[in-house]
Amino acid sequence: MARSMWKGAISFGLVHIPVEMYPAASDQGLDLTMLDRRDFAPIGFKRYNKATGKEVSWDDIVKGYEYSDGEYVVLTDEDLRRANPEATQTIDILAFVNAEQVPLIYYEQPYYLAPGKGGDKVYALLRETLRDVGKIGIANVVIRVKQHLAALVCVGDVIVLNTLRYPDEIRPTDELKIPAADSKAAQVTEKELQMAKALVEGMSEKWKPQQYHDTYREDVMALIKKKIAANQTKTLTEPEPEEEKPAKSNVIDLVSLLQASLGKKPAKAAADDDDDDEPPPRKSRKPSKDDEDTDETPPPRARKAPAHAATHASAKRTTAAKSTAAKTATKTAAKKTAAKTAAKPAAKAAPARRRKAA
Fold first, then answer.
1. Which runs of E-coded beta strand occur in 229-323?
2. Bridge partners, residue 154, by sequence
């Protein structure tokens, strides 16, 4: 754990609890350095004296308040502490309220509070009290040079100080176009509500913070490793031209979306799909007696083909008919030739038999 960023005490009533404050959150964002695109050298920022233009070191920098144009009152950290020692060293609990009464929009930054020297017993007393009554403490605290409204919340065995925004820091919603509960455009049917509740129930699970992580950061780091492996560390990737997206309808079928989310095929989409299919075949009539005497079965009724398909089919039928006629003619000619050949020996044998009989 890093060094404490603040030391003081929690005060409520006559109770005084020495505590130390530690950051409860860390920034895991991408640490990107700004580079000069001409030679990819890092860009630095200098602290310089605006009067002389010369660089100034941290040791020579002090804080000041501009009370008139170009005139400043110099304030050191000791000046700020002496202005109100109690405010800068005390977390002063003003009241205890139910946690659900403070909207989440007011919560800003969390800090851990750990007991200071000799403060274990009173720290544990406040922690167990907050846990049993189910309330949070609303307090004032000065961090650096700003006074914050804060909430003391019992999280497990730790007391967490979460700074709160003041009411005037919350922007009003008057200018937002929020649909009213009785608006016709935002009217929700009972069916849509029930399906939405079913979807929420289906997606409900226990809170497991370990399963959530920054997938975007992981993807960017994977891309960085890929560019390093491909020796493309100095390659500037230019954006591709955006494709025109088809215009979307403003009409939203919530039932279809909810059904799809629940893993069901939307009723409307199913009806549309059925319209695209070919019509169902007609029921076959009961075969008659005449049909039983015939071996040939009438072909099923074909769908109407496009014009070019019909022309192609007609050409194929014509070619097949010509081929069949040619084969039939060849067979007929072959039969006639065979008959003539058989008749000649018979004609020669007949006179011989007559001469023998004479």
1. none
2. 159
Q: What is the overall mean pLDDT for the chain?
A: 77
In the chain, the number of structural domains is: 1
pTM: 0.61
In a domain? residue 300: no
Please report where in the chains the tokens 């695109």 appear, as a residue. 37
Domain membership flag for residue 93: yes
Among 17, 27, 29, smallest CA distance to 161 is for 17
Percentage of residues in the chain having pLDDT higher than 90? 34
Burial of residue 89 (CB within 10 Å: 0-12, 13-18, 19+) is middle
Instruction: Specify the DSSP class assigned to residue 3.
Output: P
- Specify which of 120-124, 213-217, 290-294, 352-356 reaches the highest per-range mean pLDDT: 120-124
- State the burial class of residue 184 (Cβ atoms within 10 Å of its Cβ: 0-12, 13-18, 19+): exposed
Using the Cα atoms of residue 106, residue 160, residue 27 and residue 56 in order, give the sign of their dihedral: positive
276-297: per-residue pLDDT in tens? Answer: 444 444 544 544 444 444 444 4
Angle (CA) 84-85-86 rounded to 5° is 95
Q: Which amino acid does the sequence have at 342?
A: A
Looking at residue 60, which CATH number applies to its domain? Answer: 2.40.290.10
Q: For 167, which DSSP code?
A: G
- Asked whether residue 303 is domain-assigned, the answer is no
User: Is residue 60 a part of any domain in this protein?
Assistant: yes
User: From CA 96, how far away is CA 139, in angstroms rounded?
Assistant: 9
What domain range is 133 assigned to? 8-22+40-168
What whole-number distance in Å separates Cα of residue 352 and Cα of residue 173?
A: 129
| Residue 112 and residue 6 in contact, taking contact as beta carbons nearer than 8 Å | no
Per DSSP, the three-state class of 278 is: coil
CA atoms within 13 A on the CB side of 154: 18
- Residue 19's region, left for phi above 0, alpha for psi from -120 to 50, else beta, is beta
Taking the C-alpha atoms of residue 122 and residue 18, their distance in angstroms, rounded to an integer, is: 9
